[in-house]
Amino acid sequence: MERLEVKNVNFSFGFKEILEDINFVLEKGKVISIVGPSGGGKTTLLHLCSKILRVEDGEIRNSFHSSSFAFQEPRLLPWKNVIDNIALGLLAKKERKDIAIKKAQEIALKFGLEIDDFTKFPKDLSGGMKQRVSFARALVVNPSLLFLDEPFSALDIGLKKELQNILIETINKENLSVLFITHDLMEAIKLSDEIIVLKAEPVGHIAKKFSIDISRDKRDDEFVYNETAKFLKDKIIIDSFELELR
Ligand SMILES: Nc1ncnc2c1ncn2[C@@H]1O[C@H](COP(=O)(O)OP(=O)(O)OP(=O)(O)O)[C@@H](O)[C@H]1O
Ligand SMILES: [Mg+2]
């Protein structure tokens, strides 16, 4: 069975402790969201899980057959156009060029980019367009595990919903697993099987884990609003996000 297992992980940058005693397991076909305040170590944790950073204390075991990553900043190659950027991973996997281009074009259209955009270079794209290219590039290779670092943060609400729905469709159809980082509690509630709240102070640690058992298809807007309202009343959430609600 494919899974990602994070056990007793601690991490420091130099003398600065960033993460302490992180433990969780992501199973095949599941979505775990990590939420928490800025600077709490979410991106660092994702980089450890995806082996961009080396684990020095604790253990991370990943038995997923394949994975891909959409970074917090889109990291597109400036000298390649939209389609060539999306096709990168496919070509790296030795996909035939014409097939790679065709798949890249299809996913670009699905993600709301237009034919006119295909030959644009990153410098001529809006922030939201860059994010869509980056997300498309990660999804087009059909990974078993997807690492997503705030992939929808630069999108307007309509587009965000559309891409969330594409993600949900892929999770259901391909049994995709996702480790998802977001600031957006509503997004986490809509997408996740489990939400991990990372508290920044004094060192990044897991303050609480919530499971959401109801099937993703049944989570309509009303469910998401109601659950979010409940979450925002939870003392640990208030504490972790340093919210001062009255
Ligand atoms: N390469 C690095 N060298 C030293 N410190 C770093 C490095 N990368 C991140 N940090 C520090 O690690 C801490 C956690 O950063 P990280 O990017 O993981 O936070 P985050 O939770 O993803 O924040 P955000 O929500 O703003 O993206 C911060 O204090 C940051 O300054
Ligand atoms: Mg981050």
UniProtKB/TrEMBL annotation:
PROSITE patterns registered for this protein in UniProt = ABC_TRANSPORTER_1, ABC_TRANSPORTER_2
**Entry's InterPro entries?**
AAA+_ATPase (IPR003593), ABC_transporter-like_ATP-bd (IPR003439), ABC_transporter-like_CS (IPR017871), ABC_transporter_ATP-bind (IPR050166), P-loop_NTPase (IPR027417)
Recorded GO molecular functions are:
ATP binding; ATP hydrolysis activity
Q: Tell me yes or no: is Repressor among this UniProt entry's keywords.
A: no
| SUPFAM superfamilies named among the record's database cross-references | P-loop containing nucleoside triphosphate hydrolases (SSF52540)
- Alphabetized Pfam families for the sequence: ABC_tran
- Domain ABC transporter, residue spans: 4-228
Sorted UniProt keywords: ATP-binding, Nucleotide-binding, Transport
Protein name stated in the entry: ABC transporter ATP-binding protein
Q: Which organism is it from?
A: Aliarcobacter vitoriensis
